[in-house]
Design brief:
One of its GO terms (cellular component) is ribosome. The chain is an alpha/beta fold. 34% of the residues lie in helices and 14% in strands. It folds into two domains: 148 residues, 3-Layer(aba) Sandwich (Ribosomal Protein L4, Chain: A); 51 residues, no CATH class.
Length: 206
Amino acid sequence: MKLDITTLDGKKAGSVTLNEAIFGLEPRADLLQRCVRWQLAKRQAGTHAVKNRSDIARTTKKLYKQKGTGNARHGAASAPQFRGGGRAFGPVVRSHAHDLPKKIRALALKHALSAKAKDASLIIVDDVKLAEPKTKALIERFNKLGLQSALIITGADVELNFDLAARSIPNVDVLPVQGINVYDILRREKLVLSKDAVDALEARFK
């Protein structure tokens, strides 16, 4: 697969041949769904909690005798039936994360990249650097490239001026190549890869 390389100003800067094993697969929705579900479950805090029966500081003295009253057999005021008692079956602090094989995660990333390439939503740029951290100037460049909603993947490090200029632009995310993931790729309309990012991805999946 061959794609043109552009600059941030929208000018042509050559072309690049993409690896078909990474960018030329037929996207599978089931793999993408599994990986997105794994990502979202893993990042859930799971810190929701309530006071259960054992957490309530109330008397544990038996309320009334066991037999002869006609009432239910209660042994403590912390029972869920009573006002001020503990909550029955309430949420507890836990992890929502579940396992997903590493090979499935790697394959899902390939399919996400292939999905963007198939939809013509993949843009390759020669370099992601700015002389000055000017947000207004960067927005003008994005407009030339037609970027309203985009994930931009740079090389190993995000250049400081570009990071400062892009951080306040809505619907635009900037990540180093190590942070590329399926969820962020799918949640934006366009995927912008620097030439260094393409080389790093092809080396990663070699």
